Amino acid sequence: MSDFVSSFWSHYVSAITIISILACFLLAWVTSRAKVPPAVDGVVESTGHVWDENLRELNNPLPRWWLYLFYITCVFGVGYLILYPGLGTFKGTLNWTQNGQYDDEVAKMDEVTAPLFAGYMAQDIAEVAKDPEAQAMGERLFLTYCSQCHGSDARGSRSFPNLSDNDWLGAGDPEYIKHTVLNGRNAVMPAMAAAIGNTPADVEAMANYVLSLSDSRHDAILAAKAKPKFAVCAACHGADGKGVAAVGAPNLTDDTWLYGGSRKSIEDAISNGFNNRMPSFGNLLDEGKAHVLAAYIWSLSNSDESTTQTN
Ligand code: HEC
Ligand code: HEC
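A: This is the predicted complex of the input protein with heme C.
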């Protein structure tokens, strides 16, 4: 209704609704008052309608219970339209709204869970990770908010990092995980082809050097040729290629790849760079929930049972 500038349609729809209810009421009333001829010798007058050769429609009065139910329905309809929104733009005397009800329910739920989260907030994230109830909550939060991108098993996929393998783009400690949830992250690597010579051969040589860092299959001659040029990469990935967590530049020596470790994908990385973004969840999750969620994520690769995976 709020889509319309004038109030014409609101009045129009309201009028049709009210007239319909009155018409129903009148119909029931008029029909119930119509005189029905009494039965003669137990035979009720027929309306003259006959189906299937001998099925006749009789002219019986409406049953009382049915009639009263019909009146009650009309009264209920009117009462409902007075209390709740239903007549055009009229808001109803209870001022009820769907959003209002939702907000009330959320507020009630928060009241119940606030002490629970306050309790967890008072503990270290590593401590929270030992609480089975917190873990169950963390898993539910993960499946609701994170699994679309990181996968329901948290193992990620191309460009969405694996969160279960204790291999991190950033610091990887519990506070880092919580900070990432609340603030998101944006990893930027500029296109680097121009900085290393700009020909496809230069890019191919550098990709071979990157592969050599993790002892993956590579052409040693090409790798040696590119090695001195790695200085321009070192600013972010470190001179030894082991990555700099503060920049979010990953370790290139561990054979764990966010974008796949083929020579082709590494050449793409060098030629095109990245602008990879994780949205921030600060407006959807309060700090308590982020705390519990971080404990869950951290525990995936740091609990006693979890085995450290390398890819
Ligand atoms: C819309 C997709 C998307 C959603 C939803 C999402 N993430 Fe991410 N997340 C990413 C991307 C992309 C990155 C990698 C950013 C980068 O390259 O720095 C990332 C990175 C991370 C990292 C850092 C990983 C590392 O190796 O340092 C953590 C921790 C993380 N996400 C946790 C979460 C949690 C917890 C949730 C749920 C609240 C979540 N993410 C929801 C896309 C998403
Ligand atoms: C300005 C900083 C910066 C520079 C300079 C830089 N990188 Fe990166 N690089 C990054 C960041 C940040 C990422 C992570 C992108 C992401 O998380 O999505 C990355 C990712 C990569 C990846 C993908 C790793 C994977 O796990 O799939 C490769 C390969 C790579 N860089 C190679 C290089 C090479 C080779 C150079 C030099 C020619 C270079 N980078 C220069 C910041 C940089």
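The CA atoms of residues 60 and 299 lie 75 Å apart. Strands lie at 46-51, 55-58, 185-189, 274-278.
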